[in-house]
Amino acid sequence: MKIRLIAAATLLLPICAVTAATPAPVQDLGTGVVGSDSDRIARLERIIKARQQAEIDMQQRLDALQQEVLDLRGSTEQQNYQINQMLQRQRQLYEEIGKLSSQQTSTPAPVANNTPQPVSSGVSLSETDSYQHAVDLVLKERQYDAAIPAFKDFISQYPNSGFADNANYWLGQLLYNKGDYAQAKTAFENVVNNFKASGKRADSLVKLGLIAEKSNDKAAAKSRYQQVVNEYANSAAASIAKQQLAAIKP
């Protein structure tokens, strides 16, 4: 029995010696992955690049979504405008019919005076046509650069128009997309300060917050976003403002 044990021990000694002589592999205790320092650095660089690409892709998707929202809002605005224009012309037609009826029951007048005259309804056809032209340059023809002076001309010629708030917002949006933040700020501030009841006021406040962020004025950005949350608590603009507030780092 002792002879067998001695023989077995003799056979195991070389194996143990080889095992002891073989160096243990380098292992990253944090990740459990075997590799050298250069491997770990390369792996970290790949992770950072992947995250950067993911952020770029996310920003591109956000920009695309913003453009889609702009197009949808423009389409809705155009439809509302067309409905209002039809109602306006319908009222004009009814008034003209009423005028003709009253003329038929009265003493006949000279032929030259029997021609019905258009009745003013507060918004002239030249005014609506001018606004529609500017909107069409954006929504139909996609001529954004040409739309900027068109909206400026409309605002200059009809500063008290019922479309003035929308025109200023469109102008601000076009300038913002072009990167002209100074003029865009002026247009959005015009909506905020001069059209308190406008449906574009909350969105204009959000845009002013975004412009402040791009100018590295965090205090002004927070103030604008908070104003939206306070004054338009249940609106879509307030939801965007809350997200922007949460994203601003102290």
UniProtKB/TrEMBL annotation:
Keywords attached to this Swiss-Prot or TrEMBL record, sorted alphabetically, are: Cell cycle, Cell division, Periplasm, Signal
**TM segment ranges:** none
Segments carrying the region annotation (Disordered) are: 102-124
GO CC annotations on file? outer membrane-bounded periplasmic space
Its localization reads: Periplasm
- Which BP terms does GO give this entry? FtsZ-dependent cytokinesis; protein trimerization
Matching entries from SUPFAM superfamilies are given as: TPR-like
Where's it mainly located? periplasm
Tell me which residues make up the YbgF trimerisation domain: 38-109
Signal peptide positions (record): 1-20
User: Does this UniProt record's set of keywords contain Plastid?
Assistant: no
Q: Which family does it belong to?
A: Belongs to the CpoB family.
| Function noted in UniProt | Mediates coordination of peptidoglycan synthesis and outer membrane constriction during cell division.
Q: Which HAMAP family match?
A: CpoB
The protein's name is Cell division coordinator CpoB
